[in-house]
Write a structure and sequence with these properties.
Shape: globular
CATH architecture: 2-Layer Sandwich
Radius of gyration: 17 Å
CATH superfamily: K homology (KH) domain
Number of strands: 3
Oligomer: single chain
Mean pLDDT: 91
Strand order of the largest sheet: 1-2-3
């Protein structure tokens, strides 16, 4: 069982790098702001890729960036297939990753508790 899991993780990392490169250098949609690919969740059958993206800005900027990325899904899928020499390109789905925001919120809460205990 370790083989398929390792392959999925390795391919997810390669997809993450390829998509991050595309967002930084190639996608020219003005809606796309400062976005970082935090991770890629790839299904076991390699047919579906969830690309989690962290976006700087308020909710409107995040939604606009997500809309821009969704509109580029076909291009991203085709390029991933071409760059990684995949016979079948996975269906790409972009999702906002709220993990970094939650981490900052929890850090602020812990800081407040620490101040109250002093």
């Amino acid at each position: 069982m370790a083989g398929p899991t390792h392959r999925v993780e390795r391919l997810a990392g390669q997809i993450r790098g390829a998509v991050a490169s595309m967002i930084a250098d190639e996608l020219r949609d003005p809606r796309i702001g400062f976005a970082t690919v935090t991770r890629v969740e790839l299904s076991a059958d390699l047919q579906h890729a969830r690309v989690l993206v962290s976006v700087l800005g308020d909710e409107a900027a995040q939604q606009a960036t997500l809309d821009g990325l969704v509109s580029a899904t076909g291009y991203v899928r085709r390029e991933v297939s071409h760059r990684l020499h995949l016979r079948r390109a996975p269906e790409v789905q972009f999702v906002l990753d709220h993990g970094p925001e939650e981490s900052l919120r929890l850090e602020d809460m812990l800081r407040e508790l620490h101040k109250q205990n002093e």
